[in-house]
């Protein structure tokens, strides 16, 4: 390890005694906190100033801890209450909002998109269900080379629709015939929710999702707001003083309904309890959301994925969530990556366990498998 990297790890670990949140008895093994500390230190050594770990059982915290720094410029420690960008874990909130519109009788899953977004040329060929399942064939605006510069510009939902409408090819495959991850799908779903509700998306989320779940620190991010505990995002830069630089600026209006929320670990725990406890959606629609989706030929979404995704994920896609078996039972999860942040949220219905992880960097990998193993080491759950 070089000297500058060693200093970074020591700095991160120096905050641990002040930030530790004791693990509650009943879930974690003795000394599991030491192993989690080591996993966090390894991640920060890899390229992140800070990290958050939250392990909850039936909504109650078993282990919640912040590591390292939330803000390098002002040496602000990463506290367990830190506010961070959620990135693509936002998609399950958008999926739930769409299903609430279905529940209210305001739209149907098999409605064509042109009924709600007529300005998108290919909208007549795509259904709401296909958008939710990522089987629409619409290209991903986040893969547009122009995103690297134009992503810094604030955009209205209509301007995002216009951007997506101009992407070429207009469809990557025939809708319903394959699976491809596309942020465009969820940006368009956000526009659909606004159209059918007659309200801004933030208002719908606040009233129909955040309030029933008891979430007090979650919102679509807005850089003009002063947010206590807001975490700064970074990227590894060996040429920069201290080895880090600020992440590329991405206006939160660009990811929007596909990845624009900010939140806290505690709010994510409240969300999983509310969603999977039936306080957001009726049972049938919750089951629809959290079950493997299907292509038009009957295959599950996993079999429509590119081969590398099939092998790497070994998971199906539902509506805003991935679903697969883990060594510790059925797992419903999603990850998120954006400039400056990486996140992961997983829920295990068999035990009611929630694991939420976040780092304020785009230059390190979250130790998901290791934290999961440590969380269940003394539970002995197998399916």
UniProtKB/TrEMBL annotation:
Top-level taxonomic group: Bacteria
Signal peptide residues are 1-22
Keyword set, alphabetical order: Signal
Name the InterPro entries for this protein. Answer: AmpC-like (IPR050491), Beta-lactam-related (IPR001466), Beta-lactam/transpept-like (IPR012338), Beta-lactam_class-A_AS (IPR023650)
Q: Where is the Beta-lactamase-related domain?
A: 37-368
Name under which the protein is recorded: Beta-lactamase family protein
């Amino acid at each position: 390890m070089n000297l500058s990297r060693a200093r970074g790890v020591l700095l991160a670990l120096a905050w641990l005694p002040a930030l530790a949140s004791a693990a509650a008895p009943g879930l974690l093994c003795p000394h599991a906190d030491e192993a989690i500390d080591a996993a966090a230190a390894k991640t920060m050594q890899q390229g992140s100033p800070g990290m958050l770990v939250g392990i909850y059982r039936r909504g109650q915290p078993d282990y919640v801890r912040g590591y390292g720094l939330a803000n390098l410029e002002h040496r602000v420690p990463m506290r367990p209450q830190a506010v961070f960008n959620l990135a693509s874990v936002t998609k399950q909130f958008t999926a739930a909002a769409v299903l609430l519109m279905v529940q209210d009788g305001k739209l149907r899953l098999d409605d064509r998109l042109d009924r709600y977004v007529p300005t998108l040329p290919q909208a007549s060929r795509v259904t709401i269900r296909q958008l939710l399942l990522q089987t629409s064939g619409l290209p991903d605006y986040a893969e547009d080379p122009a995103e690297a510069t134009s992503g810094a510009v604030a955009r209205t939902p209509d301007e995002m629709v216009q951007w997506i409408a101009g992407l070429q090819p207009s469809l990557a495959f025939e809708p319903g015939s394959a699976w491809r991850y596309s942020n465009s799908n969820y940006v368009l779903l956000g526009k659909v929710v606004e159209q059918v509700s007659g309200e801004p998306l933030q208002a719908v989320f606040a009233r129909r999702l955040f309030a029933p779940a008891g979430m007090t620190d979650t919102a679509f991010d807005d850089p003009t707001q002063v947010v206590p505990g807001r975490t700064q995002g970074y990227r590894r830069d060996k040429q920069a003083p201290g080895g880090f630089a600020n992440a590329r600026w991405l206006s939160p209006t660009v990811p929007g309904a596909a990845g624009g929320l900010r939140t806290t670990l505690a709010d994510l725990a409240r969300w999983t309890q509310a969603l999977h406890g039936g306080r957001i959606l009726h049972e049938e629609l919750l089951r629809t959301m959290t079950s493997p989706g299907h292509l038009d030929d009957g295959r599950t979404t996993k079999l429509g994925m590119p081969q590398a995704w099939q092998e790497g994920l070994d998971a199906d896609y539902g509506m805003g969530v991935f679903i697969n078996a883990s060594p510790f039972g059925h797992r419903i999860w999603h990850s998120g990556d954006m400039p400056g942040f990486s996140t992961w949220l997983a829920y295990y219905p068999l035990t009611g366990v929630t694991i939420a992880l976040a780092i304020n960097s785009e230059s390190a990998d979250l130790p998901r498998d290791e934290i999961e193993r440590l969380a269940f080491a003394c539970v002995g759950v197998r399916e």
